[in-house]
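Sample pair:
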Amino acid sequence: MSAAAHAIGALPAGSGALALDTYELTKRFGAFTAMDRVTMRVEPGTVHALLGENGAGKSTLVKCVAGFQRAEEGSILIDGREQDIANPIVARALGIGMVYQHFTLAPGMTVAENLLLAGGKTPALIDWKTKRAELKAFLATTPFSLDLDVRPSELAAGEKQKLELLKQLYLKPRLLILDEPTSVLTPQEADEVLGHVREFARSGLCTVLIITHKFREVMAYADSVTVLRRGKAVHHCRVADTSPAQLAQAMMGGEDTAVSAPASSPAVRKPVADAAPVALKVEGLKAQGDRGTLALHDLSLSVRAGEILGVAGVSGNGQRELVEALVGQRPRLAGRVSVMGQPYNARRAENRSLKVRSLPEEPLRNACVGDLSVAENMALRDFDRPPLSRGGVLNFPYWRSRAREWIAEYGVKTQGEGAPIRSLSGGNVQRAVLARELAGDINVLIAANPVFGLDFAAVAEIHARIVQVREKGGAVLLVSEDLDELLELADRIVVMSEGQIVFETSAAGAERHVIGAHMGGGHH
């Protein structure tokens, strides 16, 4: 890294927040123009938000600034000087750091090792005693406490996100680019992270460019905002001069701002009938975590037919293990789970007879086979049943025609039902999984962070479909790290902390700060 910096002609590193300008930046992929003459000014020492739906060009823009892609036309200016940011090493030398939506941690190495690796200037012999003291001192300047000795593979998504951010902050960047940094954080964590980043910018140490699609975050933490739509920058303004409705309109184009409204406002929902049967019952569930300790301690909960039970909690408090133990991806050490009064052990036959479905987190990893086609992934539940299979013979034309219907109905953007599912964007993978999981009658739907990393049109649509399951009398267990999502959709909310349920409230009577306090733990 330092050699590369010298090779560039030892740019004066400079310190403190830098000014970023893009001028008519254009990037094409074949016939597709991902970014069309985007001109944007980011003032030094400010937090500048980039808003836009998936595919609007936000990621392309920041990847060009960070040296991961090169624009065909236009220029990037750093402190008023045009720079050819040919690769990430050049970007790093200019003081540009980026935190991705997709994690870039070395899973086999500890938190401490990952932080040091980030510097790229790791000496052959590391004086760990001194380094640990340095890292501890560095952590003390941030609002996060992470155990320096754990490995990322043992961390939940929210903790990984904090580590990604810490890795960049440790390098003292002059421009910090964040790609949806809060999609895995609780509101408290998001406020911590964004508050910290904003202080960092205000102190003049750093300029921040943040991709988000949460209006709340833009309004609360950004100074200025640029809206991208279909590759073009369509709107620039100071946050003080705008409103979520205006931003939504700029994002969607035209007058149609209804999309940003929740699909079903809680007010019109009929309450859960007192006589409604318990559809999902979990009693005394225990399960091990990845590190051999107990992740779930005697956890009990029940969800009635026609009810959405929201499970809130800071990432890493047993939610992932709960979902895995319920859907059969993790052994249960003790406890009973029943669906419609019948024992449920998450076997494929039980899923079918008891009508249990799931929308897992990271659907490409947990609910799909990446190399198989969209049509094959859509058939994973029932490929061996009629009409997909007759007398042991798989009826591929039917798989394909049904997949085409679902692709149309769920608006899955794909080159066709024969494309490998890993070629789809995250939102489209989730739509494909939804189509499969929501087909037919459902008694119980287990959904974990179902809209993680999706743009708000997809979010509204997936939320509407989850509410539909409830309206048809299904029970929904909705595990989410986004409290806004739970408050909007759930009938009842429970909070998980350290593998236990520590608090329960009706969603109508829920108070954000009370839930937040229980999420923070220490309220057993």
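Residues 266-355+441-519 form a domain with the Rossmann fold fold (CATH 3.40.50.300).
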